[in-house]
Each structure stands twice: as C-alpha cells, then as structure tokens.
Amino acid sequence: MSEFNVNQAKIRVAEYTVKTELDKLLIDMNKIYIVALGSGSTAIHAAKFIDEIDEKLNAIKGGGGCLTLEKIVAYTSHRVAIMADSRKLSKKLGDNYFDGIPIEIIPSSHRLITKIFETEYFDTCNLRMGVKKQGPVITDNGNFILDWKFKHDYDWKFTESDLQIIPGIVEVGIFPSKYIDVAYICNVENYSISTLYPNE
Known about the structure:
about 200 residues, 14 strands, four-stranded mixed beta sheet, Alpha-Beta Plaits, alpha+beta
C-alpha cells in the first residue's frame, strides 16, 4: 500500500496490475500493495494508456494481450482516466492504429469466430502468433488473441455488446466512451496537455 501526503492529508493507494509477471516483480521489490482483481475490492481511479482513442473517446486497448483484465479494472473503477500522446488521437478508430482490435477467445473457437467476421462483418481476424516462440500467443488466462482488421466505422458501444455475446469470445479490446471519464492528451510537439470529456 503506497502512502502520499497531499495538503497534509495522508492518501493511501492500492495499485491494480494486470500482468502476473509485473505483480511478482513489484511484490518482490516491496514497492506496492497489489489488490487482487478477484478480491471484491473497487478501485477509486484507474489510469490507463491506450493504443488509440477517437474524438468521441472510444478507445482500443489491450494490444499487449491483457484486454480482459484491463476491462475488469475499468468496469470496477469509479473513475477511469485515459492518458495518450497526440499521435494516438484519431478522428475515428483505425485512422492511426493499424494492428486491429484485439479479441480474446477460447482456443477451440478461433476458426468459428474467424468465419463469423468474414461472413457477417466482411473483415478478417488474424490469429496472433508468438514472436520468440512457435504457435499462437497465449494470454494469462490461457486463451488465444485474434486481431480484428476492421474496415468500417461502427457504433462502438453497440458493437462491443454484439461481439461479447458470440460464443467463444471472452472479451474485446474496444473501450467505448461509457467506460471513460476523462482523457489527457499530450501534444508531442509542445508537450501541452489537452483534457477531453465524453460527448464533447
């Protein structure tokens, strides 16, 4: 548990982390107190870096493969703040980020889900393969990752819900604006900070 003094008030902070290897490192270093996601605790604030965010504050998150745990943290937090540099701010998702939307799936379902995207969304989903090992990338939950190469602009709130009910899909890396309370965008040229809110 980290402690900070702010205006003579002592603030206690419990950090959530979504990477198991980071958990162990920080615990071993005695740097932070880790709150287990299954403990029933609720985060007051969650600060997140994202892969891309549009002007309506819809975001792609989870390119590193931890999208399900990221979504749990966002869902259980009272307030979510997004931090990004200006290169990740787009008019619409897909303008500046070309790796696609990550989708965590049950391994045995990847052919079925790939077919659904081809026939219903007219898009492709690529099974993410390991770089330094053979075979697919395996998440901390023991699942596969598909990268959805979408071609169209969607109503991301409804699209997230539509995808979540497909059997075999565990979670999608779409973070609609309903999850996001504020975004802080740093201009990479002059380092000024812009503050954006949903529905602006």
